[in-house]
Amino acid sequence: MPSVSAPVLQFDESQLKHINDKLAAMEPQQILEWASITFGGLVQETAFGPSGCVITDIIHAQGFSVPVIFVDTLHNFDETLDLARRSQERYGFELHVFKPEDCETRNDFVAKFGDELWKRDDVVYDYSVKVEPARRAYEQLNASAVITGRRRSQKGDRASMQIVEIEKGTGLVKINPLANWSFQQVWTYIRANEVPYNALLDQGYKSVGDYHSTRPVGENEDERAGRWAGQQKTECGLHKDYFAMRAAFLAKKKQEQASSSQLTAQVA
Fold it and tell me: I need a surface site. Which of 41, 64, 116, 228 has the fewest CB within 10 A?
């Protein structure tokens, strides 16, 4: 488990409000330019969704580059992995792929955690495939600020987010340059600029995550309705309280160890 070293807090609450008020009137291109000037340790984190692909294209068009983090859960669609390859070929960015700890393949993951962990314990699953690898990425790349593709129009926990946020507890800055954009604006940009996108989006999908928890959506359904359908869940853990997620994960592991020890004692 990597240690957590919090970046230096860049802004207090009043400064953060002032910055967000200013950025609210700016286009994503201007927000990204501001971020590139303001932060040393700036990275983009993307799962190669439509919004992330737009951001990658804008950064490339503006002539600067940032390291790109892709958290490979080992449960992605093949189409997502293909898009990662095509995007890197087109833009030439520095791609850093992070996988669940001590796992290189899906079979490694099953050997470590068992079959269908997401059904048995989604807290341990989310922490293992998303939260821990992302935190390891931030540490190894000395990230102080992360560009994300989140938008308010995606609803759920994202509906009230700001363009610039500071992660509770860690001080990590998260920058959401497309916060004010709609799904339609994203697609208008993609078509106008011939941005590479996931082939599944031509098959009824609007948002693509892991293969086991993503489905196509109807024409009038919300963009992320196909993610975790039927569950009271809107996020995978990347944009939740890190320390709360870690505490929940450790509590689950402690509970499992206690149950295992008790069973061993009974057998003996």
Answer: 116
pLDDT tens by residue, 85-102 = 999 999 999 999 999 999
Residue 103, CA distances (Å) to 73, 111, 204 in order: 10, 9, 31
> Distance between CA 16 and CA 7 in Å, rounded?
16
pTM: 0.86
| Residue tagged 């402690």 (tokens) | 254
Q: Which of 218, 195, 105 is nearest to 149 (CA)?
A: 195
Q: Which residues form the catalytic set?
A: 236
Tell me what pLDDT residue 159 has.
87
For residue 237 the two structure tokens come to: 């853990």
Residue 156's region, left for phi above 0, alpha for psi from -120 to 50, else beta, is left
Q: How far, in Å, CA of 236 to CA of 122, rounded?
A: 9
User: CB neighbours of 16 closer than 8 A, spacing ≥ 6?
Assistant: 162, 164, 166
Q: In whole angstroms, what is the distance from residue 128 CA to residue 218 CA?
A: 31
* DSSP of 167-227: -TTT--EEE-TTTT--HHHHHHHHHHHT----GGGGTT-SS--BGGGB----TTS-TTTTB
H helix runs in 62-165, sequence order:
78-91, 106-113, 117-120, 122-126, 132-140
| β-pair partners for 76 | 210
